[in-house]
Amino acid sequence: MNIVLHEPEIPQNAGNIGRSCVAAGARLHMIRPFGFTIDEKRLRRAGMDYWFSLDVTYYDNYEHFMAANKPASLFFATTKASRLYTEAAYPDDAFIMFGKESAGIPEAILAGGAGQPVRIPMRGGVRSLNLSSSVAVILFEAMRQNGFRGMVRGEKF
Q1: Cα gap 102→7, rounded to integer Å
Q2: I need a labelling partner for 118 at 20 to 30 A (CA). Which of 75, 81, 93, 151 fits?
Q3: pTM above 0.85, yes or no
Q4: Residue 118 forms beta bridges with which residues?
Q5: Which tens digits make up the pLDDT trace of 37-78?
Q6: What's the rounded Cα separation, in Å, for the pair 122 and 143?
């Protein structure tokens, strides 16, 4: 499974997402520019000691990401979608992209047709969920669909 952050702005969110990726065995892809530096203390604190176990790749821009990966199954998490995230079938090599906190995935990328847009349902009047919460919701649905492959199920650590 692959989580893609397009221009993340808040280091605590990126750190928490990195920690979720380590827990799920997912790869993290981060597309520049970032609203923080990778060595920022707040990023490390949110990711705790898991950041060093994270499989993470950095890209200069969206085009660089697409050329390097050529994802066969790309999903765009966006409030502009009509399809719910639970209605999508995520293969174990899916790429799930999330946009920056202030603006989401750019309209030009969404309109480009490279991915399938999905959304998390919310009550009216709520603009969006926190980015790290959104990643966890969709990532663990994708992991559930794939039988939580490679994850501890009920055993003690």
Answers
A1: 10
A2: 151
A3: yes
A4: 77
A5: 877 676 666 556 777 789 999 999 999 999 999 999 999 999
A6: 22
